[in-house]
Amino acid sequence: MATGTLKIDLSAVASNWRDLSAMASGKAGAVVKADAYGLGLAQVSKTLARAGAREFFVAVAEEGVALRQILGKGPRINVFSGHMAGDTKLIRDANLTPMLNSIDQMLRHVEALPGRPFGIQLDTGMNRLGMEEAEWAALRDLALAQKPTLIMSHLACADAPDHAMNARQLQVFTQMTAGLDVPRSLAATGGILLGSDYHFDTVRPGIGLYGGMPFVDARPVVTLDIPVIQIRDVAVGETVGYSNTWVARGPSRIATISAGYADGIIRAMGPNAQLHTGSSAVPVVGRISMDMIGVDVTGLAQEPEHLELIGPHQSVDTVAGFADTIGYEILTSLGARYNRVYI
Ligand SMILES: *Cc1c(COP(=O)(O)O)cnc(C)c1O
Question: Is the N-terminal amide bond of 75 cis, ω within 30° of 0?
Answer without folding.
Answer: no
